[in-house]
Amino acid sequence: xxxxxxxxxxxxxxxxxxxxxxxxxxxxxxxxxxxxxxxxxxxxxxxxxxxxxxxxxxxxxxxxxxxxxxxxxxxxxxxxxxxxxxxxxxxxxxxxxxxxxxxxxxxxxxxxxxxxxxxxxxxxxxxxxxxxxxxxxxxxxxxxxxxxxxxxxxxxxxxxxxxxxxxxxxxxxxxxxxxxxxxxxxxxxxxxxxxxxxxxxxxxxxxxxxxxxxxxxxxxxxxxxxxxxxxxxxxxxxxxxxxxxxxxxxxxxxxxxxxxxxxx
Length: 264
What we know:
Layout: E1 8-9, E2 15-16, H1 34-54, H2 61-87, H3 93-116, H4 122-141, H5 152-169, H6 177-221, H7 237-249, H8 259-263
Antiparallel strand pairs: 1-2
Helix pairs in contact: 1-2, 1-3, 2-3, 3-4, 3-5, 4-6, 5-6
C-alpha cells in the first residue's frame, strides 16, 4: 500500500506537491540538502564579487564584467535553490531564514560597493540597507514563535533590485543611465512597501501568540469537576452530600432534637 506524501507549502504562499524525493512527516528533511548548499554557496560568492568589483579601481572593463558575472551567478542560484526546495520537499527552517539573508548579503554588498565607487547615491544604499537590516533583526526577534518566510512582494523586490544593480554594474553607455535610475527608484519603492508589510506580519504574529498564551492561562485557572463530583482542588462534593444526608437520617423523630443535642 502506498503511503500519502507530505505537501509542502511554498514560502510565497502557493501550495505545491513535493517531488518524488519528498520525505514523509516522520522522515525529516536533511539540513545539508542541495537547496541549502546553494544558499550557503551564494553567501560565499559575496566576498569574491567584492574583490572583483574593486580590482583596477572598479572601472576596469574586464574586471567589471567578471564581477557582474559572479553577481549574476549568485542571483541565479537564488531562483534555483527555491525551486529545488519546493519541488523536492527540501524546505527547512534554516533555508527559510538563510535564503533571504543570502539575498541581503549579496544586494547589500553590491550597493555599498557601487556607492563607494561613486556610481550610486549613498541615500539609495542607506534606505535599502536600513530596511534589510531591520527586517533581518525582526525575523530573529520572532524566530522562537515562527519563521516569517519571504513573501511574493519581497521576491519581486529582490528581482527588481537585482536587475537595477546589474544595469549599474555593466559598463554601459550613458544613454542607458535613465533606465538604471528608473529601475533603482522602483526598487527603493518596493523595498519600503514590503518592509512595512513584514512589520505588519510580525505584529500580527506576536499578537496571536499573546492571545493564545492568555487563553491557555485562563483555561488552566478554571476549576473543573469530574463526573464523580470531585473537583481539581480535591474536594469531594458527592461525599459532603452523603455525609449531610447521613446526619439528617440520625435525627430523633418526633422530639425535634438532633443526635448532637442528645450527646450534650
